[in-house]
Fold this sequence. Notes:
Elements: H1 3-17, H2 23-28, E1 37-43, H3 47-55, E2 60-61, E3 64-65, H4 71-80, E4 83-89, H5 100-120, E5 125-130, H6 136-149, E6 154-158, E7 160-161, E8 164-165, H7 172-180, E9 184-188, H8 208-222, H9 225-228, E10 233-236, H10 243-250, H11 269-275, E11 277-279, H12 286-295, E12 301-302, H13 330-342, H14 346-352
Helix pairs in contact: 5-6, 6-7
Amino acid sequence: MTPSxxxxxxxxxxAATAGLLPLAASKAAAAPxxxxxxxxxxxxxxxxxxxxxxKAGYLxxxxxxxxxxxxxxxxxxxxxxxxxxxxxxxxxxxxxxVKGATARNLARYCNDYAAxxxxxxxxxxxxxxxxxxxxxxxxLAEIRHALDVLKLDGVGLISSYNGVYLGDPRFEPVMAxxxxxxxxxxxxxxxxxxxxxPELLIPDFLYEFTFDTTRAATAMIYSGTIxxxxxxxxxxxxxxxxxxxxxxxxALLENVGLPDVVKPVLPDVSGNIRSFYYDTALSSAxxxxxxxxxxxxxxxxxxxxxxxxxxLTLQGSGDPQPKLSETFTDPQxxxxxxxxxxxxxxxxxxxxxx
Length: 354
């Protein structure tokens, strides 16, 4: 238990004993014993997938050296930072670097691998399916396999596929199917094609990733995707990129004097932004978290580590994101780091909730 949580627990217990607080309040302040965090932004690179990446020339992902990964290393990392469960997903570039049957087979391999890992460690791992996008028909088949046969916890998408963003009409059948299932969908940024970004000697993961998430979210809002498919629960990586900061600007058309015949066709930008879930991966500082709180409720914030791509920043143990305490109280952190995620993941909630 951290000193901060320990101190709060003692104070709450003393207050309850003196009759100053109800006993329930003292219990709410107590930290769980052992690992308790649910990591909603964590990646895996199974052996054949990593080999395929390297063969295709992906020595870096978004400018970050392509990491090694193993279940054993993941479990050791989780234990160091009191993470009970990682919900695994495939990062950029998903399987877009191959085509046709190779892409279909690689996506199936990753999903089968993840399902076997979840079966072996059902309380330690969850998984989100990777799809062979932009192949829509193959993706629909993989959704059925991943969610009906493998019983994975949701789906992972990247913000754009070869420069085509989520919200594009070409992806409409996939969105319709995910909506029919009420799927939890994690949107991870992708590195935009070289022709679609400036030539700066700065790794994409530092800044371009955040912009690509923003492009995808904006495209889904203004295409009407969010309105048409309200049963999809979208999680935006890295505190939504720049969406919270730009929320007012993105919604400007809601507040200008447009003709009444135009207003009904405009999206509810503010409402759509409020509906997203936002993770804390590489975004735990007050500048990010307070921006998120300006556009949505605390219930829509979930913990994310971005491991193993964050390994350089997470080499110790204990609290992986101490800056969260600059914005949230300890009870609020417990909700963000556990309860909010479990509300979205019925399989894990059934296993982990007493």
